[in-house]
Amino acid sequence: MDNCIFCKLVTNDIPSLRVYEDDDTISFLELNPSAPGHAMVILKKHGYSIFEYTQEDLGKLMASVSHVSKKIETALHTDSLTIGINHHEETGVPHLHVHIIPRWNNDNGSALQSIVKNPPKESREAIADKIKAA
Ligand SMILES: [Zn+2]
Description:
The chain is 28% helix and 19% strand.
C-alpha cells in the first residue's frame, strides 16, 4: 500500500531497527517505546485488520510473535511480556501489528484488562448470547 508507513519499512524505504525477519514477517523496535525492547511484529503483506488475512497468514504472524517474544525474554531478562493488538484503532498505523512490550516487576505498568474501564450494563449472559448469535 502506497501510503502505509509499515509497508515502507518492509521495503526499506523507511529505515527501522529490525530484530527479526523471515519470508512473511518482520519485527522491529517501536519508535516510541513503552519499555526497553518494545517491539512490533507485522506481516509483510499489507492488511488493516485480522479480517483481511487468511488463517495461514495469521498463523505465520503468531509464530513470529512467539519467536520474537522468546528472543526478547532471553536478551533482556524480562519478568513477563504484554502482547497485544489495538484492533481497528483509528489513530494508529493502518497495517495490522502486534505489540510485544517487555515487562519487569514494579515497572509501573499493569495488565491489559486495565486499559479500559467500561463496565457492562447488560448481564454477561446476555452479552454472551449476542456474541454467539452473531
Ligand atoms: Zn501496510
